[in-house]
Every structure is written in structure tokens, then in C-alpha cells.
Specification:
Elements lengths: L1 H6 L3 E5 L8 H11 L6 E5 L1 H10 L3 H10 L2 H7 L8 E3 L2 H11 L11 E7 L5 E4 L4 H8 L4 E3 L2 E3 L2 E5 L8 H6 L4 E6 L19 H4 L5 H23 L4 E4 L13 H25 L1
Parallel strand pairs: 1-2, 1-9, 2-4, 3-6, 9-10
Antiparallel strand pairs: 4-5, 4-8, 7-8
Helix pairs in contact: 2-11, 3-4, 3-7, 6-7
Length: 282
Amino acid sequence: MNVMRQRRHSIGLALGAGAARGWAHIGAIERLTEHGIIPCAVAGASIGALAGGCYAAGKLDALKRFALSLTRRRIYSLLDISWRGSGLFAGEKLGTLLETELDGCTFSDLKIPFICIATELSTGHEMWLRSGPVAPAIRASYALPGIFKPVRVGGHWLIDGSVVNPIPVSACRALGARLVIAVNLGPESMSGIVMQDPPALPDVDNLGIAPGLTSVLIAAFNITQDRLARSRLAGDPPDINMTLRTAGLSLFDFAKADDAIKAGREAVDAMMPEIERALAYA
């Protein structure tokens, strides 16, 4: 524990994308804190930006309460369908909740340096958002194409950061972290449960029935994100690559926050021997 206290100032936390599986970030951050690991820098993409931004603002407990309060009925009540927009949902209801909770918080107000990853729609450039109001930056980072409409920040139309950088290790290093822990929601997502349309259709593959539109879109997103994450991590590997075991949780299982949070805590406990070794030699 003494080693961790000495080294916590140089630790960066890169929080990966993964939609509803990202509730696991809450459990991972909680458990790291309980082990005495407090990062000097946080970067996040998509749901990782939401968790990272709330953590940096001292609002992780509020995010946890919100996540655990979600039921299918409440989720549906928060989805404001956009009939003429550039996304299936306008995202205004969720955005209002976020802005209310963060209450005008700016990046300079944060307790921990934080970078929010987004993608510029017109150029495909990776955008590192680190100044101005935090809530719009987070909204831009989780604006999944086709699901939420793009968000305008600083004169740019921005979409989900996972399109270009699902696990932003490089952003943590840019903030001065000497040792980076990546929280990877990774390849467990390719389980069969994720590939089913809601409501689930049992044994669809065995029946020879072609998958529906939702299945195809989710599968394509999973495949693309997994390949991109592997490529980015190979080019800029973290010191600790902590892959969470979220099999059985689909991209849209937002009402299963309890299971995801538990998975995050378990992942930290499983990786602690490796984390301690890395800290000892950092």
C-alpha cells in the first residue's frame, strides 16, 4: 500500500468505450480508490468520458445512483425520439440531466486533469476536449452515430470518440501520467447475447434466419471497435491493460448497472498483483 501511495500521483486512467458495459468503469474506479490508487490524469471516450468526467468532477456517486436507478421503463422515458434529426434520439433529456448534475462545471474546475475524446464529423479528426464546459464535451464524446445527433462544441460538429480512439492511452500520457491503466471493455462484447435483437430470439442462427437490422448494426459496431482498439493499443500500449469480463451484457443493457459495476470491481481485484508490480518499477 505504501508503494501505491507514493506512486499514485503519476498514474493515468484511460477509460474505454462500450456503451452500457461502461457502467463497469464505476466499479473499477471505486475499487482502485479503495486500494489507494488515485490517478493524476483521466481520459475517456464515449461512456468512458461520461464516467471519467463525472469522476474528475467529484460526481461519481451521483452517476452510480443514476445508473442503478435505471429500469427499462425509465430508459424509454429518457429517449426522446428525433423524427427529423441526424440521430435516432435527440439526447436532450439525458443532456439536461448531465448539465444539471455538473452545474456549469468547466474543465478548469475539475479535481483531476481530464481529456474527453470526440471525433470531428467533417474531417474524422480525433479531438481532445480539455477546456470550456464539461457537459457538452461529454455529450459529444458519447454521441454514437445514428443513435444520438452530433453535438456542436467550439464551432465543430462532433460525434462519439470511440470512432477514432476507443481507449485513449495517449491522452493520459499527454497529461503527464508515467504509468497508464487502461480499462478495456473489450472483446467479451462479441458474445452471442450481444448479437440478439430485443426481445431476444433463441436459436436464430440454428434456424437459419437472417439477423435483423439491430443485430447487424450492433455486430458491425462491436467488430469495428474491437479491431480499432487492438490497433490503437498495439501502437501505444498501456502499462496495465485491464479487460473487464462483461460477457452477457449487451451494448444497450443499461438497466443492468449492478452487474457491470460488480464486473469492474472484480477486474481490479484480479489485476492488483500486476498493478502492484508495475507501480513498484514505475
